[in-house]
Amino acid sequence: MLRPGDLGLVPEPASTQVPGGSVLLADGAGIGTDPALRPAARWWRRVTEEAFGLDLVPSATDRSSVVFALARGLPAGGYGIDVRPTGLVRVEAADLAGAHSAAQTLRQLAGPDAYRRSGTGPLALPVVRMVDHPRFEWRGVLLDVARHFLPKHDVLRFIDLAAAHRLNVLQLHLTDDQGWRVQIHRYPELTRTGAWRHESTVGTWRTGSKDGRPHGGFYTQDDLREIVGYARDRGVTVVPEIDVPGHVEAAVAAYPELGTRKDRSAVRTTWGISQDVLDPSEGSLAFFRHVLDEVLDVFDAPWIGLGGDEVPPTLWRESPRIVERAKALGLLGDDGRPDVAQLHGWFVARLAEHVSDAGRRAVVWDEAMSPMLPRDVIVTSWRGYAQGAAALDAGYDVVMAPEQAVYLDHRAGEHPAEPIPVGFLRTVEDVYAFEPLPAQLVAPSDAPRSAPLVELVETQVSTSGGATNGRGRLLGTQAQVWTEHLDSARRIDYATFPRLAAFAEVAWSPRADRTQGSAASKEFLGRLERRHLPRLDAYGVEYRPLAGPHPWQTRPGVQGYPRDLAAETAVGGWAGLGGWRDDGGAENLPVGGPAPETPEGDG
Ligand code: ACM
Description:
The chain is of the alpha/beta class.
């Protein structure tokens, strides 16, 4: 009898029995499927036929060697795999999502060669019985295609790799100060002007180093429909993010009337947090409602990202017209005077209502929370854990994505040749130790409720939601791949892998003690190195080797901006500080450094 870990699966399934032995799947073997699971069975058949050079023949389920069947009694997204010594391979799935996950697990069971695009068998599968289901329903990864445009085929490849780790949400960060990447027919300047910048900053903005090389690109709506369909075929939902009312310089360069200053500018060429936020006018609202109408038409996700992060109100304070608008809208501070900072939450709330009216739910970063935010909005907690706990307590569903833990653009090691080291040190072990809702936040002291937060949340996830006691649900967790310093698919591979594999296990597998040095952490590292990195090698992923970068992965002379997690936690606590703080107008400070003209959170 082998031990379950000997299969080397990542993420580790909930329950596995491995009696030993293996079976061969022959050329011409039959594959039968319940019609509801056909997309998953078809995907598995195609990748398997390619990798092992054989043909699997669609046939009736009672005459097939491989069967995909619907089964009752499994939790949502769950599946079972039974590889019998007789050679029968039976997949049972609760639903299509479960079948997609089962297909990915079957691919892993076939060994690293299953990740090649050509080969000549044989295809051997271990005899196994497993029952598996996800811990969280939202297992996300954000890909920033705004700071650096990523060609479509690399986005498709990224989706393949996310799906290979049983992640099921790709948040596509499509717009930012440095580029607008989604075609909007009504507003062609968004891509004609907003998709291009004349040069880029190299490394941290603090050195002022620019490359003098134009950069840009965008996806047509046909491209995006293809991306959505490709992801759907792999069990991944693409959540588009249109970031407002900050991070909008590219849109303002295209349509200056959207901006607070109203003067013509160019698409931003530096990183960091811009003060050039939207004019929170009726005109801006109408513009972005029209943008969202096209986005809603292209993307079929139940969730639409509206951003809402990092919105310095500095220019609003300086504008008597905008102060007057805050007053007219009744946005007043404790002192009874107009409070322009509240226009941030007000603006996002209005667009969230537009998304709701279309039958979808908005997703916002935690700073966009306000008493005006509709309760159906999903809050992504990025500045720390406390914002997510507060959102749960206020009744919002939450995705935990704290920058202290799961920002994969942050440096993965302390190797002297680490390329452009920015952010906090987050090793593979650090990411593996991440717990989306740590014990410190179990029961907020000022909110006496009958059930502790974690217990309630876990119950809700396993029973697919329902009673709330006024609290929101922890939908899951999301890793972030911001690309200020990742200017190619190769750099994205380096930052993302293998840490995304560690993250995937946190998001999928049952809760466990994964702290550094724990038995689980040591076991995972061994499994990763011996069994999973060979899969990534076979696929052609240029991940960061555990010992540090290959010489060709270094970026000599390009300066990063490392941050110190212990020092920042000492100041910000579990809440974190985020990339800036509003001190009432004197200056907006980046964390960990002096106030520059253009503060920057990301390096
Ligand atoms: C963020 O990192 N500004 C969401």
